[in-house]
């Protein structure tokens, strides 16, 4: 059973709904250690003063802002603590907005919000009201001494909270070397075929259909090495962009492949559907022999 990592309340207007926060992500990263290749000795990282081999105790380390190379403004723990956001236990809702108005680039880490003891009714009311409104709540709250912006959503039963990046944390496109005027405009036929390819590959989103293939390959590699098998490293190929003259040919081949794949899927689905229907009919006949006899008598009379 997952344990709550934070507790507080959602507040907006005069309403106050006590909640508990739970992590919505189970990280599947593979923990790798650093060792010396010659004898497998573990590597330890020490905090040492630059230019010396003297290790610095943690309590002597403070933060500093570098004005110019080598020139720092030191900040003590007390000074940093005075600036820390007030540790409130409130998720303060500021606005309700439409979800499609939020660019996904602003989303960060997801969490579940569950009702605190005795707050089940208020929690259910908020969840149902938010689902009916189709709105997302934008709120502020403090987690681990950091002020967070967050979006709260509801599926009618459970509330989810996703921390968000502030506007000044997102790099404006204008600062990048990908300005629209540098993008070549496609020919009408090319765009139509690209749209057709997108349509051919469109389907319903199924999260379980996507796997972390790198993690699976790394686990398989670790298993083979643990068994003493020899590993041969393959050279990674750098993907090359499709050249302009080859775009039409690439689009045509991609569409044909996608349509063939889609046709195979449709046939398999149709076959499965027919098999299920036949199985149901057979099962119904077994359950009701009297019905089968009546059907046979009716068929005989017709003849």
Would you write up a description of this structure?
With 303 residues, the chain is an alpha+beta fold. It has a domain at 6-25 and 84-169: Ku70, Chain: A, Domain 2 (Beta Barrel), CATH 2.40.290. 34% of the residues lie in helices and 23% in strands. The protein has a seven-stranded mixed beta barrel with strand order 1-2-6-9-8-7-5. The chain has a two-stranded antiparallel sheet with strand order 3-4. Helix 3 runs parallel beside helix 5. The protein starts with 5 loop residues before the first strand and ends with a helix.
What's the layout of helices and strands?
Elements: E1 6-12, E2 15-23, E3 63-68, E4 71-75, H1 77-83, E5 90-98, E6 107-115, H2 120-133, E7 135-143, E8 146-154, E9 159-164, H3 188-200, H4 213-226, H5 247-287, H6 289-302
Parallel strand pairs: 1-5
Antiparallel strand pairs: 1-2, 2-6, 3-4, 5-7, 6-9, 7-8, 8-9
Helix pairs in contact: 3-5
Protein traits:
extended, two-stranded antiparallel ribbon, alpha+beta, Ku70, Chain: A, Domain 2, seven-stranded mixed β-barrel, 303 residues
Order of SSEs, N→C? EEEEHEEHEEEHHHH
Mean pLDDT: 82
Side by side, the strands of the main sheet go 1-2-6-9-8-7-5
Q: Which residues sit in consecutive blocks of at least 5 with pLDDT less than 50?
A: 285-296, 298-303
What radius of gyration results from the CA coordinates? 30 Å
CATH fold assignment of the domain at 6-25 and 84-169: Ku70, Chain: A, Domain 2
Assembly state of the chains shown: single chain
Q: What is the CATH C-level name of the domain at 6-25 and 84-169? A: Mainly Beta
CATH architecture level-2 label of the domain at 6-25 and 84-169: Beta Barrel
How many helical elements?
A: 6
Q: Beta-sheet strand percentage? A: 15-25%
Form type: extended
How many strands in all?
A: 9
């Amino acid at each position: 059973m997952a344990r709550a990592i934070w507790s507080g309340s959602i507040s907006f207007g005069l309403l106050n709904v006590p909640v508990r926060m739970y992590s919505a992500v189970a990280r599947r990263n593979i923990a790798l250690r650093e060792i010396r290749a010659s004898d497998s000795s573990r590597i330890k990282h020490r905090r040492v003063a630059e230019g010396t081999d003297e290790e610095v105790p943690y309590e002597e380390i403070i933060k500093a802002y570098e004005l110019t190379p080598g020139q720092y403004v030191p900040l003590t723990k007390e000074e940093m603590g005075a600036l820390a956001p007030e540790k409130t236990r409130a998720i303060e809702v500021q606005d309700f907005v439409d979800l499609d108005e939020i660019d996904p680039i602003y989303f960060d880490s997801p969490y579940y919000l569950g009702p605190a003891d005795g707050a089940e009714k208020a929690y259910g009311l908020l969840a149902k009201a938010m689902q009916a409104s189709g709105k997302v709540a934008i709120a502020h709250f403090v987690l681990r001494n950091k002020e967070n912006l967050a979006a709260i959503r509801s599926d009618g039963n459970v509330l989810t909270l996703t921390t968000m990046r502030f506007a000044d944390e997102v790099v404006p496109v204008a600062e990048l070397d990908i300005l629209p005027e540098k993008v070549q405009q496609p020919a009408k036929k090319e765009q139509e075929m690209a749209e057709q390819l997108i349509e051919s590959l469109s389907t319903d989103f199924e999260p379980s259909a996507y796997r972390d293939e790198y993690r699976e390959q790394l686990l398989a590699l670790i298993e083979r090495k643990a068994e003493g098998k020899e590993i041969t490293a393959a050279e990674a190929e750098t993907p090359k962009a499709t050249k302009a003259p080859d775009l039409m040919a690439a689009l045509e081949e991609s569409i044909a492949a996608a349509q063939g794949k889609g046709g195979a899927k449709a046939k398999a689905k149709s076959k499965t559907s027919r098999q299920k229907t036949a199985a149901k009919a057979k099962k119904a006949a077994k359950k009701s022999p009297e019905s089968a006899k009546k059907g046979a008598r009716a068929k005989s009379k017709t003849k």
